[in-house]
Amino acid sequence: MTRIFSGVKPTGHLTLGNYLGAVRQWVAADQKPDEALFCVVDLHALTVEHDPARVRRLSRQAATLLLAAGLDPERCTLFVQSHVDEHTRLSYLLECTASDGELRRMIQYREKAGRAQAAGDGVRLSLLTYPVLMAADILAYRSEEVPVGEDQRQHVELTRDLAVRFNQRYGPTFTVPKATHPAVAARVMDLQDPRSKMGKSHEVSAGVVYLLDEPAAVTKKVMRAVTDTGSGVVYDREARPGVANLLDILAACTGGDPVELAAGYTGYGQLKRDVAEAVVELLRPVRERHAELAADPAAVDGVLRAGAERARGIARPVVDGAYEAIGLLAP
Ligand code: AQP
Questions:
Q1: Is 112 a catalytic site residue?
Q2: Is residue 188, in this structure, part of any structural domain at all?
Q3: Which UniProt keywords apply (predicted)?
Q4: Which residue, 99, 126, 142, 238, shows the most beta carbons closer than 10 Å to its own?
Q5: How far apart are CA 130 and CA 87, in angstroms?
Q6: Rounded distance, CA 329 to CA 301, Å?
């Protein structure tokens, strides 16, 4: 049995990128006999400017959407990061294992720190250290696999480095995890700016498809997607990123291969119509189920409470073991 861990941060409404890059893999893992833990990583949402009430609202909405997407709380453990203290307890030990230099090299830190500075906001120290907290999220459960989108590859690499370093210095404590990515759509791009990732915290949302978008909104966004100059439909991520993104999305929705799908089109119009229809149909059951579940928030909170208790039971002995290994006196 493989232990799987992954998370989503409540920095915005969940997007098609989250769904195709991560959540769908989670639902697939949940069908297998593997032991899976999925987390709304709310502490990570505090690393940038945030509105407290919105983070709280989005945390419950993210959990509700994960259930709507098909996670079964009888089979997996679904919980909120801040409900399990072991994450922050372990994070400090890993900060004592990581170096300042390796954190400053993280691409997401450089991008987001740049954005915060450009907006005149200060850069929060937690933005620098957040990959260490993410490492703690993963290592506290001795997770073996971390299903994530392509953008998280560097952070999972850091997690592996920290696990190996800690184990070498203080004795075997952590399992060294590996990232897994979907075969297609591991990095869904913004429909208006196909050289940037579709991100849920983007301020301009015309190129971002949200899981809770109405079908008409999805269709409008896809039909207005930026395509490339050049004739014919070919799959070329470098030279034709807009079309390649649409083909990736279509392939992910229909189970096809983007290169083979390209051969079936002569113009962008039909491709966009097919992508819009495929996305609308993919998201329809998630949206409908979400509406049912959202009507009973207390039930969702109950799932999260039970999940946190199970998660605590797994993480506590691992983190206690790390405290002892690093040289702290037991209370
Ligand atoms: N565009 C994407 N394509 C494929 N996978 C994606 N993921 C996110 N965007 C895409 C994957 O979804 C999981 C949860 O993501 P997250 O909550 O950690 O980050 P986010 O959605 O990227 O959120 P933000 O706030 O918009 O963050 P930044 O600004 O960092 O991009 C992860 O497995 C992620 O890979």
A1: yes
A2: no
A3: Aminoacyl-tRNA synthetase, ATP-binding, Cytoplasm, Ligase, Nucleotide-binding, Protein biosynthesis
A4: 142
A5: 11
A6: 36
- Spell out the residues 6+ positions from residue 39 whose beta carbon is closer than 8 angstroms to its own: 5, 6, 7, 8, 78, 79, 80, 81, 137, 311
Q: Which residues are annotated as a binding site for ATP?
A: 9-11, 17-18, 149-151, 188, 197-201
Give the chain's length.
331
Question: In this structure, are 236 and 176 located in the same domain?
Answer: no
* CA pair distance 270, 206, nearest whole angstrom: 20
47 lines ligand 1 (CB under 6 A): no
Q: What's the Cα-to-Cα distance from 21 to each of 47, 220, 240, 322, rounded to whole Å?
A: 22, 22, 21, 32
Q: Residues 272, 307: one domain?
A: no
Ligand 1 site, residue 17, Cβ cutoff 6 A: yes
In this predicted model, what pLDDT tens digit does every residue of 67-100 receive, in sequence order? Answer: 999 999 999 999 999 999 999 999 999 999 999 9
What CATH number has the domain bearing residue 73?
Answer: 3.40.50.620
Domain membership of residue 219 as a residue range: 215-291
**119 and 7 within one domain:** yes
Catalytic pick among 32, 197, 220, 272: 197
Into how many domains does the chain fold? 2
Which position among 200, 220, 221, 272 bears the catalytic label?
A: 200
Binding residues, by number, are: 9-11, 17-18, 137, 149-151, 188, 197-201
Q: Which pLDDT tens digit goes with each residue over 243-294?
A: 999 999 999 999 999 999 999 998 899 999 999 999 999 999 999 999 999 9
Q: Looking up tokens 């008409």, which residue turns up? A: 216
The answer to whether 249 touches 16, Cβ cutoff 8 Å, is yes
What is the domain-level CATH number for residue 259? 1.10.240.10
Tell me the CA distances in angstroms from 137 to 41, 232, 308, one per residue in order: 9, 45, 13
CA of 308 to the centre of ligand 1 (A): 23
> Which is the closest atom of ligand 1 to the Cα of 7?
14
Q: Domain check: are 134 and 106 in the same one?
A: yes
